[in-house]
Design goal:
alpha/beta, two-stranded parallel ribbon, globular
Length: 286
């Protein structure tokens, strides 16, 4: 099986490269292919003729998306359309990454795949538009929604990830304020990559939520990071309103892996266990 991975140097893409050792993997970065350039994109897919394309490319700086809606839709919606059309032309399956931000947070219990989306920021709207392009253009696709990702490669273009930021601020002796009224499921990209590797070996196409199990606020997540790392910074919870981010965030966006469970693949470990494994792995990395 030949698999073409777009966004191979990102946080999740890097872990997919580590995990997908039993396929003919073609890892490509933005320098190799740009989903916003349809002619070059089609030429790349024609040259490699993959069986499956994994799309990790996204414009995911949520606050920037609010003031740069054109770029958000160019990458997250129209770029995905370009890719889906190219996949249809070459008859290859597509796995496309999406987000919990397609929901507004009003449900207050974990969202399943059949819940109607209602995004409340530009990023979420653009990602949902990308989902719809995939669903209307292709028959063989997997759309994977996940959330609160962290991995050893760090977040491409973001200068690290939330775990690394909390560790750095604590070690610098900074006063730290962390939002305590947004609830989600922190997800280790290595766990997510393993599950994606399993999923693409099935023909169970469709929409999937894939996260580590359990839920917490950002502040609770930060406290667990410090606890496991033996740190005791001067930290306090704050509210989303007080934090003053540009984009509106859902207050509750926990995802239920219902579709994954239905095909017998939902063995995602609790987020606390995944975090402990991440903290151990990062210490072992050169």
């Amino acid at each position: 099986m030949k698999v073409l991975l777009i966004g191979a140097n990102g946080q999740l893409g890097s872990d997919l490269v580590r995990v997908l050792t039993d396929v003919d993997l073609i890892p490509l970065t933005h320098q190799d292919v740009d989903i916003c350039e349809p002619v070059g994109l089609r030429a790349t897919l024609r040259r490699h003729r993959p069986d499956i394309v994994l799309n990790m490319a996204a414009y995911h700086k949520v606050d920037e998306c609010e003031v740069n809606a054109e770029k958000s839709f160019a990458v997250n919606a129209l770029g995905v359309r370009n890719l889906a059309l190219a996949c249809r032309e070459l008859d290859c399956a597509l796995l496309h990454m999406s987000t919990d931000y397609v929901f507004d947070g009003s449900k207050k219990s974990p969202y399943v795949e059949t819940d109607p989306p209602r995004p409340i920021n530009v990023y979420g709207i653009s990602k949902l538009a990308g989902e719809y392009f995939v669903r209307y253009i292709l028959d063989r696709y997997w759309i994977v929604r996940s959330q609160w990702l962290y991995g050893v490669a760090g977040a491409s273009g973001k200068g690290g990830n939330f775990v690394e930021l909390m560790l750095r601020l604590a070690r610098e002796g900074r006063d730290i304020r962390v939002v305590n009224d947004q609830v989600g499921s922190p997800t280790y990209t290595l766990d997510l990559a393993h599950k994606i590797a399993q999923l693409i070996k099935t023909e169970h196409y469709g929409l999937y939520h894939i996260t580590n199990s359990g839920e917490c606020t950002w502040y609770q997540f930060a406290c667990k990071i410090w606890e496991l790392s033996g740190l005791s910074p001067n930290a306090e919870p704050t509210t989303t309103a007080a934090f003053g981010a540009t984009a509106t965030r859902p207050s509750y966006s926990v995802l239920d892996n219902a579709a994954l469970r239905a095909i017998g693949l939902d063995d995602m470990r609790p987020w606390e266990e995944a975090l402990a494994a991440y903290l151990e792995e990062r210490l072992e990395r050169p």
